[in-house]
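QUALITY CONTROL LOG
STEP: pairwise intake check
CHECKER ROLE: data steward
CRITERIA: each record must contain a sequence immediately followed by its structure tokens, with no blank fields

ENTRY 1 OF 2
RESULT FIELD BELOW
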Amino acid sequence: MDRLPVLVIGSGISGLTTALTLAEAGQPVVIAAKTPWSESNSGLAQGGVAAALSPGDHPRLHAEDTLRVTRGLADPTRVDILTSQAASAVQPFIQSRVLALGPDGAPKFSQEAGHQRARIVHARDGLTGRALMGHLIRKAQSYSSIHWLDGKVVGLAAENHQAEGAYYRSPAGDLDYLAATAVVLASGGMAGLYATSSNPDSTSGDGLILAYLAGATLADLEFVQFHPTVLATKGPGRRLLLTEALRGLGAHLLNAAGERILKGHPDQELAPRDVVAQAVFSQQPVYLSMQHLPSDDVYRRFSGLVQQLSECGWDLARDHIPVTAGAHFSMGGVVTDSVGRTDVARLFAVGEVAMVGVHGANRLASNSLLEGLVYGKRAAQAILTDHARLTPRKPLARPAMTVRPEYWTVPSRLPSLLDQHLGVIRDQDGLQRLEQALQGMQACHATLLIQMMVSSAMARQESRGAHMRRDYPEASAQFAGHFYHQQDHGRIFRPISQPSAISPLPIP
């Protein structure tokens, strides 16, 4: 390459959006991903993308829904950016017919939990993430300026609080170094650390710890969203997710006696995700039923999921399907400004690994793919702007680094302990037990991350969104703020009325 590339770590929707925006401007890009795109959360996403496109809807209403569901911890300005730019973000997928259209050529909309309007656009078979990702991957592969790195990033090089590149380990086990003009973390969250999860176990928080060790700030780590309807199978590993769009169509959640567990809630099965997850967790066994709906509609609308469930021995339209709550999404992450900059110069974060401020304590359904599209593009545009005004650098000689391979290996006991003590409902006793168990484990990226999660979960003595404390069941105005984690300062709490715990770089 004639000039240093931008390194994008991760090949989900946020990483590909960033890479494509850069490549379209002529910037060389290297994409590094430790697993195939089909195993990313983006590729597995079933629901859809939220956008206020239907008659009678408006980005302001989408923003209101987001702020209500996120329990007071989302940033209104960042949410306005998300919802106001949603239409332009999804339009290319509508024009290319990746998303489902009706007979009139207009998008088909569905409703999901927490939304006051039907504003979710989705793929024809319901497997929206796979459709969007396939489209973006084909487009990325057509650019000669996008290169693919075969290896796992195991460390970031940062001098004087500035990202210089990354160390990676090849499939053969060799350690190498890549210098970069900027590094973009798009590596996903950490919900795959749990035993019961909709995520692959590769979603283990690597990117958060890469950023933290390089000097970046993390926040909101106690807020892990649990999806209320993952298939209740035995044993650890990724569980098949039963999309929220099923309840949007009218699916019921039933207890063992066949009674609807949310019939008494004003929004019933379309209550916010934290409410539904806590109900499903508390009333096990729980079953999802669509028996009362026309089977032809179910088979047509969700043909992809119908096939997946059939392979597991279930008929989506006719059976009571056992479901449970599983770890699904990380609301917290690497703290960024409104264009993805972290407090380490030339280091950006986008998508689930980032805490840009749009998810708060409880993510609104179908805002995650949208976040990747909107904020991935914004990060790329900021990199291009920064690159134009930054002084060219001479690449550093490859720094020496010793990486223990086992540092990135998750202890076998950890997933079940997370389910038990840092799951849908927590309390002080369980958190202390988990903290004690961590002290007896081999130190690794996962134990470091969980220690910070436990620290915040114990300090947040309230229940808010996805953080439900059995011993503190009510929300408290005292905790209307964020817990930040920095290497130099430990855990810091800042009320939302006070300045951030970091000083982000100025937005151009």
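ENTRY 2 OF 2
RESULT FIELD BELOW
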Amino acid sequence: MNLRVMPQQNTLDWLSQVGYTTLRLFMKNGLQNHAAATAFYFMLSATPLLLLLSYAMQLLGRLAETYVPATMLFAALYNQLRLDVLTEVGFLPRQTQLAAGGVGLLTLLLSSRGLVNAVQSAFKVIFPADVKRRFVTSWLLPLVIIPVALGLLGIAGIAQAVLTFFSSVELIGGFQATLLKILNAIFVLFMMWLLVFLAYWRLPIARPKARETAIVALLASISLFLLFAMFGHFFRLENYQSLYGALGGAVFVLIGAYFACNVFYLWAQCLYAIGKVDVEALERLFLGGEGQGANKLEVYVFSRANRLLERYGKSFAPGETLIEEGDQSEIAYFLYSGEVGIYKKTEGGERNLGALKEGQLFGEMAYLLKEKRTATARAETEVVVLALPPHILEDLMRHSAPLSRRIIDTLCQRLEKMNLATQEIPGR
């Protein structure tokens, strides 16, 4: 039997299943609430950071009075960071006072820890794991993440400001200016990707694969880049200032941070869904009509088994052996089509214990009991099965309580049949 199918259809099935699983888990895990909490702590962290930035800009401004390169850098940073706008909306005081520095640093320390804890809390929901981080690691993690993030953001900000400044200088040609702008955008996107990649890869306790993480982090970075680029076109700062007064600027930034956190967590949930989409599809295939609460969209998305057959499918001709009694292998099989006979060796010869029909899972006893194969499985007709390695079976049992109960019930029935067959052997 030919198990190969159209790769384009398999890709579409995979994308639709990943998309459906991502949205379902995103809503189920309440990640909108986690995004709101993260945005709140971001606001608390941003204010003292901007206060420290104003101190730095004042020092740079005094240095710029006598040093030409400092003057150019000051002009570039002031224009790129739009400090005049931040001062206008109330994020930066017009005259910073040294007395506020201690309060700002204390607020920065507490809010930064709250920000990291909010992200970690969301990641525990998105990437569930059986183990927990050590107490010391959990406390030290914010002290490592914040300096790294600030360092990358600082490098990105300075480089972007310098590139933007030189691209606007009239002495260079139009082509060079355009090239600098493109390099500026690429550099910003790269730094954003690096931050997102490190978060997706290092924060989950059960780390996803690096290659998948890099691709999803790139998609998340592009989404965030487009969000920041288009946010001002749909949300006007003036409208919030007229509605909320002095708090309008804070509300405006808070809404932007909330949308950004939603995008960040949505792609994180997608990264988890990519690793679990096979388990989701296998669960629905195994349970068939026994699954509870499946809607029409879910049934349609997971209705085709072609992708699973291409990845896990194996075909056997009549008389071929799938499992040999006494083997050490731990692969489990799902009988997709055909009939499989179960045989056990006895003193009187090989004994037929019965036949398996389509839709049954078999061969799981070797993995669950950590023993050798207790019987032989042989194809009675042309057979197509899904061969499942141990880690897939483990994920299935962790993921689906109904499937775990079904496997345990089947295992008990088979053990009972084998005991009865052994008792009926002559001379024993």
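INTAKE CHECK: passed for both entries
DESCRIPTIVE NOTE, ENTRY 2: Residues 8-281 form one domain.
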